[in-house]
Specification:
The structure is a single chain. 78% of the residues lie in helices and 0% in strands. It contains 7 helices and no strands. It has helices spanning 10-28, 33-56, 62-86, 91-114, 129-134, 139-159, 165-211. Helix 1 runs antiparallel to helix 2, helix 2 packs antiparallel against helix 6 (139-159) and helix 6 (139-159) packs across helix 7. It is globular. The termini are far apart.
Length: 212
């Protein structure tokens, strides 16, 4: 019986398309900001499609999950780099946002894997209440979309002459969602750090018991 080629699973192929769209977006940002944002948002909307495909076709894989997360994190980071260029006075805040986003997701994923979780989105029923709520629908999708739209609107409003008033209202709403998601990222960071420290303490205790 031939082995399945995980690299050609439908959700993973969609993931490759997402990467291409993201790269196109970043290459076009200096010259065609509107087109760039179209490619960027399309790449992120496909994130929902590859998840649905993975579940429907029973093609969920560790490789796909890792590629999905890395695409999300790298894409957001590159957008924040571009925002630092057009809003240099706020570059520290954009850098801080990058650090919180990457550190919290990486540590949460790593601690979840060590603890034997099949997915970083699977939160123990006895675990952190905020994270349990965060990883439910539609909470996860709303905060994810609001966060990305806030950064996209920041970039677009810099390039649009006389933008419509409703864009500022939408930006304000998305800004609140962005702040909320950042707060949850900090919860991720603290909770994952506590879990890692607890595992370290438990391992050290076992070693002491063996030596006694």
């Amino acid at each position: 019986m031939s082995r399945e080629n995980v690299f050609l699973f439908v959700p993973n192929v969609i993931g490759y398309v997402r990467i291409v769209l993201a790269l196109l977006a970043f290459s076009l940002m200096p010259r065609l900001p509107l087109t760039a944002m179209l490619f960027y948002l399309l790449s992120f909307l496909l994130d929902e499609l590859d998840g649905r495909a993975a579940r429907a076709l029973h093609q969920a894989t560790r490789f796909g999950a890792m590629m999905d997360m890395l695409t999300d994190r790298c894409a957001t980071m590159c957008l924040l780099v571009n925002l630092s260029l057009v809003y240099p006075s706020y570059s520290f805040l954009f850098q801080l946002s990058m650090c919180v986003d990457i550190a919290s997701h990486w540590l949460h994923l790593h601690s979840s894997t060590i603890m034997g979780s099949t997915s970083h989105k699977s939160i123990d029923p006895t675990g952190n209440t905020i994270l349990r709520i965060y990883y439910t629908e539609p909470v996860l999708s709303v905060l994810w979309l609001g966060n990305e739209l806030f950064f996209c609107l920041l970039f677009l409003l810099h390039h649009i002459q006389e933008p419509a008033a409703w864009l500022y209202w939408l930006q304000g709403l998305c800004g609140l969602l962005c702040l909320l998601k950042t707060g949850i990222s900090l919860v991720h960071l603290v909770t994952a750090s506590q879990n890692m420290a607890a595992m370290d303490a438990a391992e050290r205790e076992k070693k002491r018991e063996k030596t006694e």
